[in-house]
Design a protein that fits this description.
Strand content: over 45%
Low-confidence stretches: 1-25
Mean pLDDT: 88
Largest sheet: 5 strands, mixed
Radius of gyration: 53 Å
Strand order of the largest sheet: 4-11-10-6-7
Distance between the termini: 160 Å
């Protein structure tokens, strides 16, 4: 018995050769050369005498080693008892757990220890001898989340299982588009963006995964498409709102509206609050808080069901704005009247300017209905009283906007003073009468009892000043002796504007 053991050891030494740091046997082969990573698999190594003790490890750079369990179904009793290697045959079977193993070509490292005492182990490396293929498998429970998406939805969907590796392709059935697929580091999950077409057929469809190695798996009815929501209208009485205004209880009509979860109502420039979906799915109400910075114009309303299904209603809500203040306002007074002019506002707001309002007392204003007219006379004012005039523009959508003021201005008399001489020429030393009339320019009304100062300036001698008072008809007159050329200047300075005549 001892001689037999010795003979086997010698024979093995004769057919072995050194490779690197270990001992390699010629013409060893692995069959099959490729296995999927979907569970425990077996392969056979042939081409070298088996030993009583065998160990096999799969190695791939950058990944954990995979240890195999070795069996030798053809071994004789002496080999099985570890007594004689000559009874072990020339092949072994290796069982390895490849579930979720990283795909790639693994080195097969075989370590053999001969029977008996004093034998040393030898190692054989079969480079890239076994290809581990990526075989995707779905998890047993809830492998697709979410498993239902509505028509028009675009959502991130997660698939769990094993055997997921870079290069995997996912399909969620007809009417869907998959993009941005990413595989988890441990190969047990993947996420992808799944866009469901608005006209995708409603109902269940299979989910399939195909690895870069060409291995595939299908999950029957693993994904379903639900009906798209519909928006048909909005309460006309509440379809507009101003900046910084909250419009409450706005009702949108439609069908197949499903609340809860990810349900949302979106309007650009508007904060949507207190959303309530009707149980029958045919309407949704909400409070619309228009942002203070929201520009005027129509808005598209977008609704997203809790299953991601989407619907839009174009130009359903409009942010309206009043006109800006007139660019400039000018006021100037006259006798019991003021004249106000202005220029058009820099922006008409959400609609064309339809008119203006001129306000000069809290309770009194003048409306101008012709938007092309930008001047107005305000009569009936009290002379001596200060007035401030504010002009605002309006449009049909909102009404009056911000105002711009001019003033204060104070109306008062505007007077006219006339003067004439009783004769055009006179002999020096002869008396000449100068006379005239003092009237209000507005209406040509005479001003009686008013002081008129008359300055007489002879060519020779000193000038003299005389004060005269107008009669009830506003008339005044003086007589003066002429000295060569004599000039007379009359003036009136009362509570009203000054008037003079030479």
């Amino acid at each position: 018995m001892r001689t037999a053991r010795t003979a086997v050891v010698v024979t093995a030494a004769l057919v072995s050769l050194s490779l690197g740091g270990g001992t390699a046997h010629a013409a060893q082969t692995v069959a099959p050369t490729a296995l999927p990573n979907d569970g425990t698999k077996t392969f056979t190594i042939t081409g070298a005498p088996a030993k009583a003790t065998e160990a096999v490890v799969l190695k791939l750079v950058g990944h954990p080693d995979i240890s195999g369990t070795v069996s030798n179904p053809g071994a004789g009793a002496l080999c099985s008892l570890g007594v004689a290697d000559s009874d072990c045959g020339s092949s072994i079977t290796v069982s390895v757990n490849l579930l979720s193993a990283f795909p790639g070509r693994y080195d097969v490292v075989r370590t053999q220890t001969p029977a008996g005492l004093g034998g040393s182990a030898s190692t054989t490396t079969l480079p890239a001898a076994l290809a581990v293929l990526s075989q995707p498998l779905f998890a047993a429970s809830n492998p697709v989340v979410p498993a239902v998406r509505g028509q028009g939805a675009s959502s991130r969907i997660t698939v769990t299982g094993t055997g997921f590796a870079p290069g995997i392709v996912a399909s969620f059935g007809p009417g869907t588009t998959v993009s941005d697929l990413a595989v988890g580091a441990d190969g047990t999950s993947l996420t992808a963006n799944v866009a469901v077409g608005p006209d995708a057929v409603i109902g269940a469809r299979d989910v399939s995964l195909t690895s870069a190695d060409g291995l595939s798996k299908t999950l029957p009815a693993g994904f379903a498409v639900s009906a798209q929501p519909v928006l048909t209208g909005i309460d006309p009485a509440k379809s507009t709102g101003k900046a910084a205004e909250t419009v409450t209880g706005v009702r949108f009509t439609g069908d197949k509206l499903v609340g809860g979860g990810d349900f949302g109502l979106l309007i650009a420039g508007v904060d949507v609050k207190n959303v309530v979906v009707a149980p029958d799915g045919k309407s949704v109400t909400a409070d619309l808080a228009v942002k203070s910075t929201s520009a005027a114009g129509p808005r598209t309303v977008r609704v997203t069901n809790n299953d991601g299904g989407r619907a839009v209603l174009n130009d359903a809500f409009t942010v309206v704005a009043p006109p800006a203040a007139p660019a400039s306002v000018v006021a100037f007074p006259d006798d019991t009247v003021a004249y106000v002019t202005w220029t058009a506002p820099s922006t008409p707001g959400s609609g064309p300017v339809t008119g203006y309002r001129v306000t000069f007392l809290p309770e009194i204003s003048v409306d101008v209905t012709d938007p092309t007219k930008r001047a107005v006379a305000v009569p009936g004012l009290v002379n001596g009283k200060a007035y401030t005039f504010t002009v605002t523009a309006k449009n049909a959508e909102v009404g009056f906007g911000a105002g711009r003021a001019a003033g204060p201005v104070t109306p008062k008399y505007r007077t006219v003073l006339t003067s004439k001489a009783s004769r055009a020429t006179a002999v020096s030393g002869q008396s000449v009468t100068w006379s005239g009339v003092l009237t209000r320019r507005n209406g040509n009304l005479p001003i009686g009892g008013a002081p008129v100062n008359v300055v007489v300036r002879p060519q020779v001698g000193k000038a003299s000043t005389k004060a005269v008072t107008t009669d009830a008809q506003g008339r005044w007159s003086i007589a003066a002796t002429t000295v060569y050329t004599t000039a007379v200047t009359a003036s009136y300075a009362g509570s009203a504007l000054e008037a003079s005549v030479a």
